[in-house]
Amino acid sequence: MSAPREVELKLEVPADSLHRLARSSLLQAARKKPPKPATLVSVYFDTDKLKLRDKGLSLRVRRIGRRHVQTIKQETGESAVLFARKEWEHQIGGSQPELEVTKDGALKPVFSKAVRRGLKPIFETRVSRRVYPIRRGDSVIELTVEKGKVEAGRHSSPLCEVELELKRGESAELFKLARTLAEEIPLSLAVKSKAERGYALIAGEVLEAVKAAPIALAPDFSRQIAFQAIARACLHHLVANQAVTLRGDAEGVHQMRVALRRMRAAISLFADMLHDPQTEQMKEQFKWITQELGPARELDVFISRVVKPLAQGRRNGAGVAVLTKDLQQRREEAYARACAAVESPRFRGLVLDTAYWIEAGDWTRNPDDLTRLLREQAIVGAAADELGRRWKKILKAGARLGELDPERRHKMRLQAKKLRYASEFFAGAFPGKKTGRRREAFVAALEKLQDALGDLNDIAVHAGLTERILHTQDARGKQRPVRAKKAFAAGRLSGREEARIAYVLKDAQRAYRAFTKAKPFWS
User: Fold this and answer.
1) Is 228 domain-assigned?
2) What pLDDT shows up at residue 475?
């Protein structure tokens, strides 16, 4: 769909911090007199069956004084990324949509006669808005502060946002401005549009963990555009699970870790064009938050897969209750650590720094001729080469799977994980139904191998956790005595896990043999 691209950055801000924002030196310098607030009422339209939402579009009519402005936005797909969306905006004569003013032919199939007849108001937003023009070098950015609510029938949710929209100049200035503001006010990246909030109210959606969404690539995308699309999706995945993690949800922690692993895998897949100090700094930041979330996830898996089955048995044995209580306390401490990290200024800064790095980082401007050519290379050829190379490495390692020690099995598991992520990232570079079916079969076989290798790795991780339970230290570094019953129970857990190694290894070998028969989908 060809339409002007709206380059903007939406930031959530606590309502009690708005007064600090209004007094910031940046906004004070923007205008000698504070702008008067304007009240905006925006009504969103769709059919009973929400056909526009299903097509990834939103349609609103906004009343601004006596004027009415109609806006159609693309909410999903490659063109509806975190920081730029396609939109069609026109002034119209009244409060009802006037679709004939939209001349774009790509929209005609969406707005069929049946859809036009079925359009009706479904929710609205009411906000008080203040607009500040900000000049940074040759760039002009419109900073908008909005406070209000989204309403759908009897249901509503509060809205408090800062929106930065690039009117002229370099997009890099948008992210630099956001980082400057974040040093004064606890801003965080918003990943839900107003339309998405409204649709969530209609559906009665509750806060829950979000899985990774498909990434829309095309064979003719350059490697730079492809990496940016992938990285944006990883960042969205990470931030979308922030709130549910702070609620103490185990799946939220898991999905944040998955998002980070996917981001780090993407960097690995494009490593030849990302060799710069700024990228190294970002990798260190991703490593930090991964480590902060790690203990909570490890204890979740250990308790649910190892301890609970033993505790629920008829003969759970001496010390299991004591050990379970100890592990639950450790889990609570691990979640407190994870939540503290996710709520910290360091994490908020990491998210904004990541947004800037994706869109306008040093890697996008590296003048080295070879690096520039790598950025401009079509993704389809590069993706085929990368997939083929990683596939061969797994085939070679798996041929000696039974002889590998835990460390080398762990490396093979990481290779399998990266190949799976690469297969998902690059799906759009290899279109066609036949190719799609082959890719699904390839990924399914790879997932089984990855799961078996992951099970083997969990056994090794659980052994480390058991060892730490038996060798805890006090604040002075002295060994704490371990109750005999607790030590006995820990020994039972360790023995059960060690006994699993032989048959889990056989599962991994069977999964490997099945994987060798899966046909590559990229050739």
Assistant:
1) no
2) 47
Strand (E) positions, 417-487?
none
Count other C-beta atoms under 10 Å from residue 473's C-beta.
10
Number of domains the chain contains: 2
Q: Is 519 helix (H, G, I), strand (E, B) or coil?
A: coil
Q: Is the pLDDT at 141 greater than 70, yes or no?
A: yes
Distance, CA of 435 to CA of 250 (rounded, Å)? 35
326-357 core/surface letters (b: 16 or more CB in 10 A; e: else): bbeebbeebbebbbebbeeeebbebbbbbbbb
Secondary structure of 329-382 as H, E, C letters: HHHHHHHHHHHHHHCCHHHHHHHHHHHHHHHHCHHHHCCCHHHHHHHHCEHHHH
- C-alpha 507/C-alpha 11 separation (Å) is 47
Q: What is the pTM of this model?
A: 0.87
Q: H or E segment at 198?
A: helix 194-203
List Cβ neighbours of 428 (8 Å cut-off, separation of 6 or more).
215, 216, 217, 218, 219
CA nearest to 327, candidates 348, 350, 298, 285: 298
CATH of the domain at 145: 2.40.320.10
Mean pLDDT within 209-216: 91
- State the Rg of the chain over Cα: 26
Residue-wise pLDDT for 52-71, tens only, equals 999 989 999 999 888 999 99
Of the candidates 151, 175, 205, which is a domain's last residue?
A: 205
β-bridge partners, 189: 11
Q: Are residues 136 and 197 in the same domain?
A: yes
